[in-house]
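[agent] plan:
  1. take the single chain provided in the ticket
  2. run structure prediction with default settings
  3. attach structure tokens to the ticket
  4. add a short note for the reviewer (M.T.)
[agent] executing step 1
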Amino acid sequence: MTFLRRVLFLDAATCIAAGLLMLLGAAVLSNLLGLPEMLLRYAGLSLLPFAGFLLYLGAQAEPPRAGVWLVIALNALWVLDSLLLLMVGGLTPTMLGYAFVLVQAAAVAVIAELEFMGLSRSRKVLA
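[agent] step 2 finished; step 3 output follows
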């Protein structure tokens, strides 16, 4: 369970950092990235309660499988939404904006994969 719990805490830490960056720095980021300030603000705000949920799960001796599956699904949805935002969002991000969205989507995808691996490992340990 240690690997899974560590990944959940890593996910929480990245959500807190990215959430605060987008929430508090939305005006500056908007100019740099070419993304709407309110989009950045709301995206950042949405990450903070999610981080709380991740901290709750990670604090459990055995994180509930259903909760971890929910996290994996929400992370996958974040990645999909990030890509759709660039393809059909009607936005005109700067090159830095494209990079910002793609890099954070890739990071979330990697974390979701690590959570899936941790869930698989925990199942083998319990069996």
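[agent] step 4 note for reviewer: Residues 2-126 form one domain.
[agent] ticket updated
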